[in-house]
């Protein structure tokens, strides 16, 4: 079984890129497993709203509201998960009517209102996560920006490359398409909501300023337009036969009624679905008028780990002034537990001179508990045996038989059975890419018997389900400490309890619950609030304290 990837070339307002591709394991890949390449984003026209000048905006009759679903509180994990799951899935169908066979055939067609609305809905999902007002879809007739966007996308698809200023010699050139290219983020190899993901990610060596992202997050913007063409992935330079292409008009009307927060950060502060992490590893903070030339950045994980930060070269002209920095060593895959990161940007020219926020990366669709023991049965084959849970990687469980020469694991988006963990030479695979656990597969296993043979009689049964942990509780400050608690004065705050022998790590209930089942006490490390790596005091952690998520220690 072989995994394939498409090449995607993006250009915000005007993008160009160096083509390429990469293959990633779908189980460990970040939010955008397709290779994405961007060049520089468009710079603002002289009268654009980013200059903080008033700009008359079009009649409401030429604008169509495209609202996201549900309330949102980014400080609340459940709220963000619900919002993401309600708005990220694509509900509309892309029905292209373009006909691209240059130089003779150049028809942009019309992808349909519902699809355009779905694209702007993705824009609004991102804007709401960073605390901005939603934008509307331009629907003006005589000056239809959506049509200009489609003609712009047509030029890019018909030439297999991107430019914000396409020459008139290009295939399928038109004045309307030229205007659209100069006012838009543009992409080839993707379309609709997927292109929005690419613009916000802003990967590629030419996109250090994250200009595409900044236009989407420009606070006063009130209106966008969009257009798509094509019906397949892009194969690289020279592919002029109808690849997907998108154009997102980012210089629409502005409004003083739009929310203008003190600063905008991406990924957002509060809870962040790991699915949205930028594969570019580019974080950004935008502040109108701020001077970031001497700014410093720190990013500290809750266990004390300081991420490696690399600042990108400053570049203004794309909406508000922005500092871009890369976290070179942050993991992008599905986290097995929440990752809390405290950010501080200091020495900023202006008032205030420092900005602090916390982002917590989490899985909005966590997998159910791993089965501890399972059996494959129903055929006569070496893979039909009992398997025991061996661990979890990138959010997925993996198993081995008693001899540890047959392993069940997830790779390239499907469940596999190989001789070793992660082996590319496999005995069997299951084509059900939606199953989060082996026992949840809804399709037949394919087994190698000289050729791939579907085996509907091969069943996967969980013999020993994993226990669902009880939700943690925080003890009341007024509660009386257990008699097993060290007899010293209690101190309020978040205490950290670490597994025996660990030098760092937040308190985890699992470090207590297992040992407590079979032993009355274990050795654990108990640290005062904010002690970090400096904590060296060891205390015995009693069974009674195992029932508390934040033990009262001193």
Written description of the protein model:
With 554 residues, this protein is of the alpha+beta class. It has four domains: 8-21 and 36-47 and 79-249, 3-Layer(aba) Sandwich (Pathogenesis-related Protein p14a), CATH 3.40.33.10; 264-362, Immunoglobulin-like (Sandwich), CATH 2.60.40; 373-464, no CATH class; 470-554, no CATH class. It has eight helices and 29 strands. The strands form six sheets. It has a nine-stranded antiparallel sheet with strand order 25-24-23-22-21-20-19-18-26, with no helix packed on it. A hairpin with a 2-residue loop joins strand 21 (407-411) and strand 22. The protein is globular, with a radius of gyration of 27 Å. The chain starts with 6 loop residues before the first strand and ends in an 8-residue tail after the last helix. Mean pLDDT is 78; it is low at 1-6, 12-38, 46-61 and 468-554.
Shape: globular
What does the main sheet amount to? 9 strands, antiparallel
In total, the number of strands is 29
Spatial extent as radius of gyration:
27 Å
In round numbers, the mean pLDDT is 78
Question: Span from first to last CA?
Answer: 56 Å
Q: What helical percentage do the residues reach? A: 10-25%
Q: State the CATH class of the largest domain.
A: Alpha Beta
State the CATH superfamily name of the largest domain.
CAP
- Low-confidence stretches are 1-6, 12-38, 46-61, 468-554
């Amino acid at each position: 079984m072989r995994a394939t990837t498409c090449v995607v070339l993006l250009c915000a307002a005007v993008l160009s890129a160096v083509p390429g591709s990469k293959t990633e394991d779908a189980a460990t890949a970040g939010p955008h497993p397709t290779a994405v390449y961007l060049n520089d984003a468009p710079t603002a026209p002289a009268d654009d709203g980013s200059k903080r000048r008033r700009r008359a905006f079009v009649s409401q009759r030429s604008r169509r509201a495209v609202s996201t679903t549900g309330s949102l509180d980014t400080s609340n994990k459940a709220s963000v998960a619900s919002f993401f799951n309600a708005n990220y899935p694509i509900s509309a169908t892309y029905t292209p009517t373009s006909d691209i066979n240059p130089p003779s055939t150049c028809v942009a067609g019309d992808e349909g209102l519902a699809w355009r609305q779905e694209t702007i809905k993705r824009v609004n999902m991102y804007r709401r996560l960073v605390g901005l007002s939603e934008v509307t879809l331009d629907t003006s007739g005589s000056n239809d920006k959506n049509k200009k966007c489609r003609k712009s996308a047509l030029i890019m698809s018909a030439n297999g490359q991107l430019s914000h200023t396409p020459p008139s010699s290009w295939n399928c050139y038109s004045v309307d398409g030229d205007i659209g290219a100069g006012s838009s983020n543009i992409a080839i190899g993707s379309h609709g909501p997927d292109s929005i993901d690419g613009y916000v990610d802003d990967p590629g060596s030419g996109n250090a300023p994250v200009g595409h992202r900044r236009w989407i997050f420009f606070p006063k913007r009130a209106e966008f337009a969009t257009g798509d063409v094509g019906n397949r992935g892009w194969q690289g330079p020279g592919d002029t036969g109808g690849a997907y292409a998108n154009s997102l008009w980012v210089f629409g009307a502005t409004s003083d009624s739009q929310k203008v927060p003190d600063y905008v950060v991406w990924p957002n502060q509060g809870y962040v679905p790991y699915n949205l992490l930028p594969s570019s590893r580019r974080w950004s903070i935008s502040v109108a008028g701020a001077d970031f030339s001497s700014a410093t950045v720190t990013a500290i994980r809750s266990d004390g780990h300081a991420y490696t930060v690399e600042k990108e070269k400053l570049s203004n002209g794309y909406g508000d002034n922005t500092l871009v920095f890369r976290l070179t060593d942050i993991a992008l895959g599905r986290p097995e537990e929440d990752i809390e990161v405290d950010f501080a940007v200091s020495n900023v020219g202006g008032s205030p001179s420092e900005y602090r926020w916390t982002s917590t990366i989490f899985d909005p669709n966590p997998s159910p508990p791993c089965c501890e023991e399972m059996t494959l049965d129903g055929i006569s084959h070496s893979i039909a045996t009992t398997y025991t849970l061996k661990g979890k990687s990138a959010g997925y469980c993996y198993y081995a038989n008693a001899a540890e020469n047959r392993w069940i694991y997830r790779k390239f988006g499907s469940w596999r059975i190989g001789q070793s963990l992660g082996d590319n030479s496999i005995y069997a695979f299951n084509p059900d890419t939606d199953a989060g656990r082996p026992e949840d597969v809804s399709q037949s296993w394919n087994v190698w018997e000289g050729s791939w043979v579907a085996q509907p009689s091969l069943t996967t049964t969980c013999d020993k389900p994993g226990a669902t942990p009880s939700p943690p509780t925080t003890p009341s400050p007024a509660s009386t400490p257990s008699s097993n608690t060290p007899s010293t004065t209690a101190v309020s705050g978040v205490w950290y309890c670490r597994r025996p022998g660990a030098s760092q790590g937040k308190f985890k209930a699992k470090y207590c619950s297992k040992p407590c089942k079979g032993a009355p006490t274990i050795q654990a490390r108990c640290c005062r609030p904010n002690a970090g790596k400096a904590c060296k005091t060891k205390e015995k952690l009693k069974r009674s304290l195992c029932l508390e998520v934040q033990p009262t220690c001193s």
